[in-house]
């Protein structure tokens, strides 16, 4: 009996994991895209290898110092459910608003947020092959795909919106 129960739980866990993977792959395949300007730092972790901490340009403190406004619609809104990203004509995030409703306009993206302070609704690290840090040091934009309020970091791009790839360096040799 214990063996059958263990097998049943194992199959349920595998089904949930496979469904989660399917959802993420669907976002990457069919989702719309947007870009966030970034400033990067290339740390190294002994256990994880080379990676980049992504400092996004939607940071409220940085945006305020640059004259961009971050609007919180209701001061009573301690925990908002959504961030409404305002996009430029090129698809780059130029600011955001916190909200509890799903109403968006043109050139806006609605994302579910996990927590309010500090705002975090996208990936904050990007892993790459060891020894490739210099290639990614010129990254100016992080490209995301989004669908149904979820966003996934897809790639890093240079100032001309050209994707930075591991293969680019290998092809030039």
Description:
With 173 residues, the chain is α+β, with helices and mostly antiparallel strands. The protein folds into 2 domains: 1-30; 32-172, no CATH class. The protein contains 4 helices and 9 strands; from the N terminus they run αβββαββββαββα. It has helices at 2-30, 60-65, 133-136, 166-172; strands at residues 32-41, 44-45, 49-56, 82-87, 93-99, 108-112, 125-127, 141-147, 150-157. The strands form 2 sheets. Strands 1, 2, 3, 7, 8 and 9 form a 6-stranded antiparallel beta sheet that branches. A hairpin with a 5-residue loop joins β4 (82-87) and β5. The radius of gyration is 19 Å and the shape is globular.
Keywords, separated by commas or semicolons:
2 domains, 9 strands, six-stranded antiparallel sheet, 4 helices, 173 residues, three-stranded antiparallel sheet
Outline:
With 173 residues, the chain is of the alpha+beta class. The chain has helices at 2-30, 60-65, 133-136, 166-172; strands at 32-41, 44-45, 49-56, 82-87, 93-99, 108-112, 125-127, 141-147, 150-157.
């Amino acid at each position: 009996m214990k063996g059958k129960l263990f097998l049943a739980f194992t199959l349920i866990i595998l089904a949930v994991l496979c469904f989660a993977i399917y959802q993420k792959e669907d976002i990457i395949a069919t989702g719309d895209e947007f870009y966030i300007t970034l400033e990067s730092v290339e740390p190294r972790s002994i256990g994880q290898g080379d990676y980049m901490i992504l400092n996004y340009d939607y940071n409220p403190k940085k945006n305020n110092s640059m004259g961009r406004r971050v609007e919180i619609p209701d001061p009573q809104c301690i925990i908002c459910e959504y961030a409404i990203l305002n996009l430029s004509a090129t698809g780059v995030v130029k600011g955001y608003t916190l909200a509890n409703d799903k109403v968006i306009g043109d050139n806006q993206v609605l994302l579910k947020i996990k927590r309010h302070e500090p705002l975090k609704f996208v990936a904050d690290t990007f892993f790459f092959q060891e020894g490739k840090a210099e290639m990614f040091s010129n990254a100016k934009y992080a490209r995301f795909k989004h669908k149904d309020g979820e966003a996934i970091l897809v790639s890093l791009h240079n100032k001309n919106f050209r994707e930075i790839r591991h293969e680019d360096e290998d092809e030039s040799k």
